């Protein structure tokens, strides 16, 4: 398409700058809504799939199953309480259970959660170190990538935890020594401070008289005065038969709650899906209105400038050339609207990601881009071409002689 046609199309569009601006804004709002819902939905689904990988059951204290899953897997809710260490040992002896990962939580560092775990917990998410090593004893810590970046900490740093999950809770006297930093994994571990289970027990035993974390029997065989506890236990089945039998066994024990991550996340996504569908419908409705407005704008230009079109045809402009001008107008409007909408969607995504990070919830990537957006761009271009068909047909079927006579 020649540059002359683009220049003429641009001038014709902006003969009515207010109306053209409104059409562009309507397109941008519809496009931004659809794109933003797509970006947020994909990231939440990927996060769920990544954090759920390899975990078939979450065992915790009696309470809401969804709360147990959110606290134990996604680390975005308060735990329901503690469970005895004996529960972990019994689960490990169950022939239907392949792996058990006990976790202890309840403390934080400037709002970022401290989680006591065994070193094998890193294998659950295939987490890898970017620097240092894994903890090998009490009061050694490994920082998630987001925590290290947000707090500006690295190897050798000395940090103190606070009781509770808030950023303003009272600080413990015991200090953690940072011995490792994890690579970004796009999972919950990015926003955790990981340490040995004995660290959690040691801090609470000495300073609060509470048993908040598990220790391995071989590490503290002589310390049996206080029953050992953990917050949750993540379970992986050995065979499909575990789905039917292991939860029953857990539920039969007093004070214990078994929660299926797959079931609870599906319920959560159904609830979230309603809002997502509403936003998607609203976005597509805006886009449909925007395409209709583009069609009306092009028809208006075609009607108001029909004598000019006739004169151009008398001067030798071919039908193909005129159709190209109409198409250029439609593509110009669509390009402005889609570009503004894309920038708006990604800008809002960046703002949401920043706000969540400030609240210690690194759930979104501010630079995330979806391949599906390319398909939406192609769909937008297709709609723009469709919107140009009727105005182009109206210009071509107009009688040149009568239009020129009416002009005079």
Element layout with pairings:
Blueprint lengths: L2 H11 L3 H36 L4 E5 L3 H10 L8 E2 H9 L3 E13 L2 E6 L3 H4 L4 E4 L7 E4 L1 H7 L6 E6 L7 E12 L9 E4 L1 H11 L21 E2 L1 E6 L4 H11 L3 E4 L1 H44 L1 H9 L4 H40 L13 H26 L2 H8 L1
Parallel strand pairs: 4-9, 6-8
Antiparallel strand pairs: 1-11, 1-12, 2-10, 3-4, 3-7, 3-11, 5-8, 6-9, 7-8
Helix pairs in contact: 1-11, 2-9, 2-11, 3-9, 9-11, 9-12, 10-13, 11-12
Membrane topology: Multi-pass membrane protein
Protein name: ABC transporter permease
Organism: Inhella gelatinilytica
Structural write-up:
The chain crosses the membrane at residues 20-40, 278-301, 321-345, 366-393. InterPro entries: ABC-4/HrtB_transporter (IPR051125), ABC3_permease_C (IPR003838), MacB_PCD (IPR025857). With 408 residues, the chain is α+β, with helices and mostly antiparallel strands. It folds into two domains: 3-48 and 273-407, no CATH class; 57-259, no CATH class. Helix content is 55%, strand content 17%. It has 13 helices and twelve strands. The chain has helices spanning 3-13, 17-52, 65-74, 85-93, 121-124, 145-151, 197-207, 242-252, 261-304, 306-314, 319-358, 372-397, 400-407; strands at 57-61, 83-84, 97-109, 112-117, 129-132, 140-143, 158-163, 171-182, 192-195, 229-230, 232-237, 256-259. It has a six-stranded mixed barrel. Strands 2-10 form a two-stranded antiparallel ribbon. Strand 3 and strand 4 form a beta hairpin.
């Amino acid at each position: 398409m020649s540059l002359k046609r683009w220049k003429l199309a641009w001038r014709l569009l902006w003969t009515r700058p207010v109306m053209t601006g409104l059409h562009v804004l309507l397109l941008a709002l519809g496009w931004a809504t659809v794109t933003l819902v797509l970006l947020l939905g994909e990231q939440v689904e990927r996060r769920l799939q990544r954090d759920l990988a390899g975990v078939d059951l979450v065992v915790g204290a009696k309470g809401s199953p969804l709360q147990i899953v959110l606290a134990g897997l996604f680390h975005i809710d308060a735990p329901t309480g503690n469970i005895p260490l004996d529960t972990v040992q019994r689960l490990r002896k169950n022939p239907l259970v392949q792996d058990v990962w006990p976790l202890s939580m309840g403390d934080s560092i400037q709002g970022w959660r401290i989680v006591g775990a065994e070193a094998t917990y890193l294998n659950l998410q295939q987490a890898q170190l970017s620097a240092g090593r894994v903890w090998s004893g009490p009061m050694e810590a490994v920082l998630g990538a987001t925590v290290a970046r947000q707090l500006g900490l690295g190897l050798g740093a000395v940090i103190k935890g606070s009781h509770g999950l808030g950023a303003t809770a009272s600080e413990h006297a015991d200090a953690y020594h940072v011995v490792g930093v994890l690579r970004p994994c796009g999972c919950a571990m990015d926003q955790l401070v990981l340490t040995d289970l004995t660290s959690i027990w040691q801090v609470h035993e000495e300073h609060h008289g509470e048993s908040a974390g598990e220790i391995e029997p071989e590490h503290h065989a002589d310390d049996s005065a206080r029953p050992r506890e953990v917050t949750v236990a993540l379970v992986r089945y050995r065979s499909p038969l575990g789905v039917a039998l292991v939860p029953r066994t857990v539920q039969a024990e007093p004070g214990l709650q078994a929660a299926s991550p797959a079931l609870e996340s599906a319920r959560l996504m159904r609830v979230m899906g309603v809002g997502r569908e509403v936003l998607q419908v609203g976005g597509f409705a805006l886009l449909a209105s925007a395409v209709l407005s583009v069609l009306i704008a092009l028809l208006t230009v075609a009607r108001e400038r029909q004598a000019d079109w006739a004169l151009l045809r008398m001067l030798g402009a071919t039908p193909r050339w005129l159709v190209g001008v109409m198409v250029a107008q439609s593509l110009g409007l669509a390009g402005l609207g889609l570009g503004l909408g894309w920038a708006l969607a990604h800008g809002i995504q960046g703002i949401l990601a920043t706000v969540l990070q400030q609240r210690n919830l690194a759930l979104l990537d501010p630079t995330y881009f979806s391949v599906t957006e390319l398909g939406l761009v192609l769909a937008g271009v297709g709609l723009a071409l469709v919107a140009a068909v009727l105005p182009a047909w109206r210009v071509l079927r107009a009688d040149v002689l009568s239009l020129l006579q009416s002009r005079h």
